[in-house]
Design a protein that fits this description.
A hairpin with a 2-residue loop joins strand 22 and strand 23. Helices cover 12% and strands 39% of the residues. It has helices at 20-23, 61-67, 69-73, 102-107, 142-146, 210-216, 228-231, and strands spanning 7-8, 10-18, 35-41, 43-44, 47-48, 50-51, 83-90, 96-98, 117-124, 129-134, 154-158, 163-167, 173-175, 179-186, 192-195, 226-227, 233-234, 242-247, 252-259, 263-264, 273-279, 282-286, 289-293, 298-301, 309-312, 316-323. Strands 2-3-7-14-9-12-16 form a seven-stranded antiparallel β-sheet. It has a six-stranded antiparallel β-sheet with strand order 17-18-19-26-21-24. The chain has a four-stranded antiparallel β-sheet with strand order 20-25-22-23, with no helix packed on it. By secondary structure, it is mainly beta. It starts with 6 loop residues before the first strand and ends with a strand.
């Protein structure tokens, strides 16, 4: 049995990043840098998060995978942790991109890893929007992607604080300026860029990948934002007051939780999960310890773990995601 785990985040400077992670969440990231991503739970080669406290302090997620795999993963197979969890701060547009699905990679096995992801928007100002799919007439030629009318090829949606969107592998997508969000995704770092707002031609070392990106797009897919508040419904006995499903099915399942009263955190039998706080404060308690909860807090809950009780000090809203790639 393993206790819940909190890791030291890995900050990544990005040309599109900002300063919200330090200013709004109090994250320990470099001041004066454009920090676009903070990888909170990562088992990527060369970017393995390190346990921040407790009996396993100083161990990397990869080391725990090797030493306590059965407790950590339960019935999930494989040699790496299946989820990558990050907070993202967007002050300039990300590239319009696509991640491959398993069907695409079956024909191009050397082209990377599949990647489905979930976005939950903790903060969003009046500029905040996403690109979430393509319009008719796909595929385009490369000249159309580079031309002035490239935006007409894609669907654009405004977002507000508390919205969420599921980005299935094969969806053309981009984050636009003015937001701070949680991203939960498969353990993959494969991205094909369709358009990069001219940065690809500005000596930034950010190439485009039209030969992979265009055929990897699934034109029928859309990432349409929805409101958490409008979806939250009654919880269950002994659990949070309100819940709603954000994404269901392989490779991971996510629900939103909201409660001002204490509750026992639901556990998926023999499956690991992650718990991420969007709003509110409180404590996560287990038999041998506790963790403070505040906006931006991220915890890994091993497959074989002690019971965990959430004790809100103010109304708490969080996301619980369970790995299902079995």
């Amino acid at each position: 049995m393993l206790p819940p785990l909190r890791f030291q985040g890995i900050p990544l400077e990005k040309v599109w990043g900002g300063s919200r992670l330090r200013e709004q969440f109090g994250k320990d990231v470099p001041a004066g840098k454009k920090i676009g991503e903070l990888w909170e739970i990562s088992d990527r080669e060369g970017a393995e998060t390190i346990v921040a406290e407790g009996p396993l302090k100083g161990r990397t997620l990869r080391q725990i995978m090797r030493e306590r795999k059965a407790d950590l993963l339960g019935r999930i197979p494989g040699s790496s942790f299946p989820l990558l969890v990050k907070w993202i701060d967007v002050e300039a547009p990300l590239s319009i991109q696509v991640h491959p699905d398993l069907e695409f990679l079956a024909t191009r096995p050397d082209a990377g890893e599949p990647k489905t992801e979930l976005w939950v928007f903790a903060q969003a100002d009046e500029r905040a929007a996403i690109i979430g799919g393509v319009k008719g007439g796909w595929p385009p030629d490369k000249q159309a992607l580079a031309g002035e009318g490239f935006a007409d090829l894609f669907e654009r949606f405004s977002v507000r604080p508390g919205d969420f969107a599921a980005i299935e592998a094969g969806t053309a997508h981009a984050l636009l300026p003015g937001m701070l969000l949680l991203e939960i995704q498969e353990n993959s770092d494969t991205t094909y860029r369709l358009h990069d707002w001219g940065r690809d031609a500005a000596g930034t070392g950010r190439p485009l990948h039209p030969e992979l990106a265009i055929p990897a797009v699934r034109p029928a897919l859309r990432a349409i934002p929805a409101s958490l508040q409008s979806r939250l419904g009654p919880g269950f006995p002994g659990g949070p007051e309100k819940t709603c499903v954000l994404r269901a099915g392989v490779p991971f399942e996510s629900i939103a939780l909201e409660s001002a009263r204490p509750f026992v955190l639901p556990a998926a039998p023999e499956l690991p999960s992650v718990f991420c706080v969007l709003e509110g404060k409180g404590q996560l308690r287990f038999p041998d310890g506790s963790f403070p909860l505040r906006p931006g807090a991220t915890l890994l809950l091993p497959a074989v773990r002690p019971p965990c009780r959430i004790e809100p000090q103010s109304p708490l809203r969080a996301v619980l995601s369970c790995a299902l790639r079995v």
